[in-house]
Amino acid sequence: MRDRRILTNPARGVNLPRKEGKARVYLSHVQVELLASKCGPRGTLVDFLAYTGLRWGEVTALRVGDLDTARRRVNVQRNAVMVGGDLVIGTPKSHESRSVPCPRFLEEPSAISAEARANRISCSATASPTSARPILATASGCEPLQRAVRSPGFSAHPHSA
After folding, report:
1. Which among 110, 138, 161, 142 has a CA at the least distance from the CA of 35?
2. What is the pLDDT of residues 29-64, one digit of tens each?
3. Residue 38 · residue 16 · CB < 8 Å
4. CA distances to 17, 18, 46, 105, 139 from 56, in Å
């Protein structure tokens, strides 16, 4: 078309088949509890991901100021992804900020995590106080989660949907 070898696009007006959505699979409360217990100190993170619905990259990019403990809300404004071995901070998948409710039972652990990391770049665990690269964004950061999902007695995969 661009080099004008054909005058019209023969595919114009052809209706494509509709995409079929995949069935979504969600973990039960019991499965979340089992997964969190197998993740040791990262269990609070598993609960946070499960009950807020935030994506991994959104949690990785959280900053202390994004946690509004008074209103029990999490303000999602950024997303973190690994690109060529570098951590790149961008906008969330929807390209819009949003505020997500945080269940009461997560209120205290989230506040403790925020206080402990107040001087760090990310609310997520970092290698050292001066490190700008969150461990959670690296492959080793999700190792406890991966081990827990592969362990005997756990039958669902969080990303099977």
Report:
1. 142
2. 998 998 888 888 778 888 988 999 998 889 888 888
3. no
4. 32, 29, 10, 20, 12
Q: What's the structural domain count of the chain?
A: 1
Pair 149, 35: CB distance under 8 Å = yes
Provide the domain limits for residue 128.
29-150
Q: How far apart are CA 75 and CA 25, in angstroms?
A: 25
Examine residue 10 and state whether it is found in any structural domain, yes or no: no
Q: Give a yes or no: residue 48 inside a domain.
A: yes
Beta bridge partners of 47: none
Domain presence at residue 74: yes
Q: Report how far apart, in Å, the C-alpha atoms of 108 and of each of 44, 45, 69 are.
A: 10, 13, 8
Q: How many residues are listed for the chain in this entry?
A: 161
Cβ atoms of 144 and 82 closer than 8 Å = no
Q: Judge if pTM exceeds 0.70.
A: no
Has residue 6 been placed in a domain?
no
The pLDDT tens digits for 77-105 are: 999 888 888 888 888 888 889 999 988 88
